Amino acid sequence: MAEEELRFRVLGVWEVLDGGRPVVVPAGKMRVLLAALLMSLGRPVPVGVLAARLWPGLSPLREQATVHTYVARLRRLLGQQAIQTTPGGYMLDVPDESVDLLRFRDLLSRAMTAGSSDDELSLLHEALALWGGRPFEGVASDWLDEEVIPQIEDEWSTAMERRIDLEMRVSWPGALVSELRELLRVHPTRESLWLRLIDALFASGRRADALQAFQQARSVLADQLGIDPGEDLQRLHQRVLQGGGPVAGSQVSTSAPNGVGVARQLPPEVVNFVNRPELSQLEKILTTIQQGERRFTHVVALDGAPGIGKTTLAIHLAQRAVATYQDLQLYLNLRGYGPGEPLSPSAAAETLLRGLHLHSEVIPSGVDERAALLRSTLAGRRVLMLLDNARDAAQVRHLLPGADSLVIVTSRNQLRGLAVRDGAHRVTLAPLPSRDGLALLAAAYGPDRVTAERAAAARLVELCGGLPLALAILAERAQRAGGLTGVVQALDDERMRHEVFQGGDGDPYNDLWVALSWSYRTLTADAASVFRKLGLHPAEEISLDAAAALAGMSVRRAQAALDQLVATHLVRQRLPQRYELHDLVRWYAAELARSSQNPQKQNRAVRRMLDWYLHATVAADSRLLPHRRRDFLAPYLPQVEPPRFADVSAAMAWLEREYDCLRSVIRWANENGWSGHAWRMITSLTTFFERRIPLHDAIEFHRWAIDAAAAAGERTGEGYLSNALGYMCYLRGDGPAAATHFHNALTCFQDSGHSSGEAMMLGNLGLVYGERGDHEAARRYATRALDLCTESGYHRGRGLNLDNLGVALYGAADYEGAIGCHLQAHEINRQIGDVNGEASNQRHLGLAYLALRRYRQSLRAFGEAIRMYRLLNNLRFEALVWVDIGRALFLVGHQGLAQAIWSGAVATLKEFDDPQAREVSDTIAAMQADPRA
Q1: What is the pLDDT of residue 118?
Q2: 407 touches 401 (CB < 8 A)
Q3: φ, ψ for residue 216 (rounded to 5)?
Q4: Would 74 be classed as within a structural domain?
Q5: Residues of 808-833 as b/e, b for ≥16 C-beta within 10 angstroms?
Q6: One domain, residues 494 and 535
Q7: Claim to verify: residue 558 and residue 540 sit in the same structural domain
Q8: Which residues pair with 409 in a beta bridge?
Q9: Nearest alpha carbon to residue 24 among 76, 83, 71
Q10: Residues with pLDDT less than 50, the chain
């Protein structure tokens, strides 16, 4: 009997075939023995394990001899070669394809990594066609019933539901209703099937039937399990009740937290990926995780040397797991090893939250609070998270989701703490064996060409030390340099390779110098120049425009150079016109910049880069606040072309996109002798901070920026920064701190003869005194500020300080006088086109009209203020005006509407940590406790 002719069917009624003819395996222990061998196909099964399967709880006295007797009888049925004797046990040695269960699992595995939904659906159909019913039908075994069959049935159910989800997307959902009802007849308590039935009914226009199906589900779950429907069923029920648009097939595949969106951040797989020894171990770990309890978050940690292929393997593993963790897939480079500082746990949590589309205003400052917000945001979702290039376990631990998720971590550190404390599955990657190294080289260079240069290929694998990154880069070099033999000859020259393989300094980066140098030497002059200068950039990511400024090129030339760098895998492009370098490559680029450019050229390149960032932030700020004075700027170098922004929205979008990069650039500039650029950039970001960034972050930046400007003797700059810091303290309700900073700014402007700055500070001090209740002092300061503006011809300052004077008169209960000041200020601001000033005037007019009970005029003014603050993207002050509108409505008897408006405004004000949030919240609470209040 030939083993390859044997066929085993276990998915349904038990059947063994030999060349298409049935082989009768007697019921009882013979079938259990064969089942035990089948479930460990190709692997030795110890005699003790077989005995436990055959005689659970009580093995025979002579278990080895007894098991051998049963094996001998089974051999006579299947053929002597089918069952191999191994040290201590036995192994069934037949091809995987001969067992329908293994074919079924192979098709499911291929479906998980299919390149398209159509391919996935086709593979699922093929797999499910093998299903014939309850597995191992006709085999009596507690072991099978309790440990094996439930797992297989779960795999079938998951595949069936995934197939239904895909078909609901591409066909009429109503066509699946009958099938779903039949499945529920067999599995009445499976909530996931009820979800799909209700969704299919609703999506096909049968809303009443969908509601009835929910009631049926509720009854079945209560009667058979004594539980209520789960959260997913209840949310779907509410959606049907409300008539919201159904999305067929969405229950499993696209669920995402409200306001978070569907994150699909995993990088694509490498085209030339080859298997490696650790892959089978990782796939077993993944299978164990997927079959385990869903209440845990599982961590897989890959560690190894630089260039060993950790990230490539992690991405491959993550893509294999995507089908199981479909809600959210997150990716973050933690920058644990490289030229820059590692991401702190706090910064890493913030980056993940930003990637989930949470606005910066809602992100707290503390690492524990950010970690808690991250867990809350991810709660209830099956999340796949890839944390690349971690420094240590502490950097990772704050980022772990709460439950039912998979986190894959890569690091050069062994992360033993993550294994001990967090139960991580830790796998250390070894260098590629020669066989796998040749396979990688063949995939990158071409199988026929590797065969033709077999000796050179083997030598190249040896010289590269099994490092996949080195092999990939050298294969690319060989494509353009005439073959592998020439590359090997160069690497065999000790003068060329001693720096790489025999550096003697223990620096792991050196292992890739030769590979990188050969790729670098083939670049055009422009591409080489851009590559070197990218090593000077302090942030992980750089835009095309910034790269052009750094290189001193036009955008078009820089684009062509970057295209070549991307093509040769020296630079990665994850988003259009945004580029990043791998840590190793960036380090090499920095070394090249230091060794091939004199300090003057380096400084000039850095100056161009910083000039570009500074004047780009100024250009954006000029859209946000057009009439602000910017006399602190110096001219920028030639070949720097700051971006132009069409409107406020475009400027705000650029600032939000570049904010992480700007933070890195500003910090680097301040720490490396370019503090003048650093504090000027912060000054240019003040309006953005006010409208979009939590004040605690902005305050931190301004404190050290003031020190930098003061140390440089820049009194005007120190004045601008002290004014900004004072205003932020004023917004937070910290009057004493605000007064301190305003007084410092006043002194700075007086020392530098800056009369308009002096006028601004007098007006701001008036606001602080007004908040304290000293309205006479507030009036005096505002009047003196107004006189200074008139004397110096500072027209915009007259508008600002007329508004401040109106606020002071309002505080003194002179409401008619306040209205007069605000109307005069509004006319000035209208003439010069200062929308920000007009918005402030309209709000203050509304408050004065309200105090006089002129409600119609009050609401009209508030409405104009809302319209203008929306034009300015000023969320904070828009919310404050909504609070004012709520007060007006409350006074005219619309308490319910006022409460609703206040509730919406409070949510925004809490994000900004505005002191009015607590006051309004207390009012709402009082109204709810006593509706007559």
Answers
A1: 79
A2: yes
A3: -65, -45
A4: yes
A5: bbbbeebbebbbbbbebbbebbeeee
A6: no
A7: yes
A8: 301, 387
A9: 76
A10: 1-3, 245-259, 494, 497-511, 515
Segments forming the whole domain that contains residue 411: 278-428
Q: Answer whether residue 298 is part of any domain.
A: yes
- Whole-structure pTM over 0.70, yes or no? no
Q: How many CA atoms lie within 13 A of 198 on its CB side?
A: 28
Closest by CA position to 170, among listed 122, 208, 205, 213 = 122
In CATH, what number is assigned to the domain containing residue 551? Answer: 1.10.10.10
Tell me, yes or no, whether 251 lies in a domain: no
Give the Cα separation of 27 and 785 in Å (integer). 101
Domain count for the chain, please give it. 5
Q: Domain boundary residue among 372, 393, 428?
A: 428
Q: Would you state the structure tokens that stand for residue 838, as one six-digit string?
A: 């007009």
Tell me, what's the pLDDT at 130?
92
Positive or negative CA dihedral for 543, 545, 549, 555?
Answer: positive
Domain with 299 in it: what CATH number?
3.40.50.300
pLDDT digits (tens, 9 = 90+) for 797-808: 999 999 999 999
Give pLDDT, residue 514: 52
**Co-location of 282 and 416 in the same domain:** yes
Q: What is the largest CA-CA distance in the chain?
A: 113
Q: How far apart are CA 460 and CA 450, in angstroms?
A: 11
The token pair that represents 416 in the structure block: 């033993």
9 CA to centre of own chain = 45
In 379-521, which residue ranges form alpha helices assigned H by DSSP? 393-397, 416-422, 434-445, 447-452, 454-463, 468-481, 484-492, 494-501, 513-521
- Given 500, 520, 540, which residue is the final one in a domain? 520
The 3-class secondary structure across 632-691, one letter per residue, is CCCCCCCCCCCCCCCCHHHHHHHHHHHHHHHHHHHHHHHHCCCHHHHHHHHHHCHHHHHH
Residue 848 lies in a domain: no
